[in-house]
Design brief:
Blueprint lengths: L1 E4 L5 H13 L8 H6 L4 E6 L2 E12 L2 E9 L8 H16 L3 E6 L2 H6 L3 E3 L24 E6 L4
Parallel strand pairs: 4-5
Antiparallel strand pairs: 1-2, 2-3, 3-4, 5-7, 6-7
Length: 153
């Protein structure tokens, strides 16, 4: 399966995939307009002409980025696609010189397998909360925060 940066034509499929899992309470929903505005943050895994999985790397500050909106279709789960997408985000963050990557998730075990460590969400810098104000769960976030420090050569 090919991992590549998302294209504008992928946005409707990304939106559908993310919100399928959001409707099940497994992740937070993303409005279509937000995905269009941030399409350059997204990677996709394609199965033919279909988006089988997606993830975004969103830069928060000079030394901090978030891996978010990781979703893999039910049919393609447990095949390592989520790990490949997360690795693409980590490689991009390192190439940009970002020291720390974080994730807010309901599936912490996946991220722990990728080398992330659980932290109290209150330990994350205030800059992270800029997006949280728009969330229906704010200020009672029930996602689990994880961070990963990147080592530079």
């Amino acid at each position: 399966m090919k991992i590549e940066k998302a294209k504008i034509g992928d946005v409707p499929q990304i939106h559908k995939l993310i919100n399928y899992f959001a409707d099940k309470g497994e992740m937070l929903p993303r409005p279509l307009s937000e995905i269009y505005e941030n399409v350059r943050d997204y990677y996709v895994a394609r199965d033919g002409d279909q988006v089988a999985a997606c993830v975004a790397l969103h830069v928060s500050w000079a030394d901090l980025a978030e891996v978010k909106s990781l979703a893999v279709t039910k049919e393609k789960q447990e095949q390592g696609i989520g790990a490949l997408l997360t690795k693409a985000c980590l490689e991009e963050a390192e190439a940009l010189g970002i020291e720390t990557v974080f994730a807010l998730t309901y599936k912490p075990v996946f991220f722990e397998k990728m080398g992330f460590k659980r932290v109290d969400v209150m330990e994350l810098p205030r800059k992270v909360w800029g997006e949280c104000y728009r969330c229906a769960k704010f200020p009672n976030c029930d996602e689990i925060a994880l961070v990963k420090g990147l080592n530079f050569p």
